[in-house]
Amino acid sequence: MSDMTGADLVDLDLSADTKEAAARALAERMAARGRVTDLEGFLADVAAREAQLPTGLDGGIGIPHCRSEHVTAPTLAFGRSARGIDFGAADGPADLVFLIAAPAGADDAHLTILSSLARQLMNAEFTDALRAVADPARAAALIRGEEPAAGDEDSAERASADGEDSVVAPAAASAVAATAPATGEPQPSAAPEPPFRIVAVTSCPTGIAHTYMAAESLENAAREAGVEIVVETQGSAGFERLEPEVIAAADGVILAHDVPVREKGRFAGKPTVDTGVKAAVNRPGELIGEVRAKAARGEATAGGAAGSAGTAAATPVERGGEPGEGYGTKLRKWLMSGVSYMVPFVAAGGLLIALGFAIGGYEIDKAPSVTDHFAWAQADSWAALFFQIGGVAFAFLVPVLAGYIAYGMADRPGLVPGFVGGSIALTVNAGFLGGLAAGLISGAVVLAVQRVRIPKALRGIMPVVVIPLISAAVVGFLMFVVIGKPIASAQEAMTDWLDGLSGANAVLLGALLGLMMCFDLGGPVNKVAYTFATAGIAVSDPSDSAMKIMAAVMAAGMVPPLAMALATTVRARLFNAAERENGKAAWVLGASFISEGAIPFAAADPLRVIPSSMVGGAVTGALSMAFDATLRAPHGGIFVVPLIGNPLLYLVAVAAGVCVTTALVIALKGLRKQARDSVTRGPGDADPSTRTPGAKQPVSA
Length: 701
Known about the structure:
Number of strands: 12
Number of helices: 24
Mean pLDDT: 80
Strand content: 5-15%
Helix content: 55-70%
Distance between the termini: 40 Å
Radius of gyration: 30 Å
Low-confidence stretches: 151-185, 303-313, 319-324, 688-701
């Protein structure tokens, strides 16, 4: 640890007002020591990590951290702020700021040391000592563990006295307790009741800080509650799997994670609390109380023999949610689950259909089935093959959408009624609206069935027979008899409305779709606009209006990455080295209609990049609609230009939006740079740009 930090990496009078300024001030110290090779690139990586999840913790602590290729060795810089800096913690600003930098390929030994520091941050004596220390060298010694904080000796003595019963190392004790009955030895009648046993998993995106802080917080809370806990930290330094007998002996499970839990099936059949990693850091006692309450009620995750048929754990799209999360947020997650699984079918099917049109012309949809006639040497046969494969892939869109909306709500038991309901939506011509309704109804029906208390003998067949049977029957009845026809009428009315759009109305719709495509660059709003467009062309004979909407959506989605690529080319000095490299890749991503190519730029500078992208996207969407450009393919970018109606004007629309966004980004970033330069020079310094040509300038000695 001695080489990770030092007095030169400690600032006990951190004057920064924002988390960005604090990260820069501490990163500059790292760069001065030679630990950071590219300051701007490293700060962009820190900002990208911060965009994933705020790094503020309750108790006045901020821990910005990341892995970066611009870091030469694991390094920690510490700053103490008198005024406090907002890092997104619920209890207010942070006065203790730890900037942790790890190389992209850091070895396990270094990362283990960093994880030990993360655990120390949960120690009140440690943080109190850092608030009181007056000497940077002593602060660095405290962080390195060379100078114990007050109370550390007592803690060590308590841990030594606790022995195997200690909550921080109970794995062996748990294993012994789990296997003790197998020895056949009689148990004393007066033996105390065994403690409630919990196994837990913690993990975060980088696996450096939150993973281990959550583990320490859970262990401390378990000690106070008289509960035995074993925590598996799935961090950057790898992880040691919990022993099967330890899991078998556990009375409950806590999964605190922001990335998928590895080998999650090990915990099936246990009362489970599934939440985000910050919940374990900030309110571990509540999580322990919650899992104990679920165990008392007999709730368990699906697939186990114990407990009820209900699922106690969060569903696949609710893992990071906090208590009190609104219904609107949950609904968005459920819908996005369906859309995310549907998009690959859209891309594959749409491009195959487009390829069929490109080879065989627009009459290829009237070709006979390739099972009846296929000539290896004829281009039309291959065109028909591609078109028919694409049509089959497109036929899965609505069932997949409905099935995975239900999956997001109720996990795997929701798949059967979801797919059945989605297929019925196609049968009754309810389209995508019917698929959305079928998915939501399927998830709700499964959740309702799972709440019913059933005899223990029947629990084994619930997920295989009872739930699929009842839920599919209920959803089928509702879709065929009750709501299918009304939804089909609504779908038809929406199609007629789109067919009637023309003139100013069409242009305004194009601008709106362009704004949505560029708002979150592949996020929920972007996917809503994209799904709206693909729903119109996912039929055998799409209308002219539907193809115009698809063209406008794809054109607008290409704007942000292409604009960022152009901006890094014409004004490279406004971007750091990492952004300039990302700009090279953005050319290809933008041309391929992958809006996510602009995300690194938006994460580093959202207030300038996102509004600029939205303006350019709106311009492109409006122009595309005004030019009556059409598109039959749902994806492909410039590679499907031959399939676009009015292709030259379509490219003009894309170019116009790219130029608008590029100009705005350069202007806004240029203003920021001028403001920084003026602050650096001070009010009395001359602006270098105003110096008289040829005039001699002072030369420093």
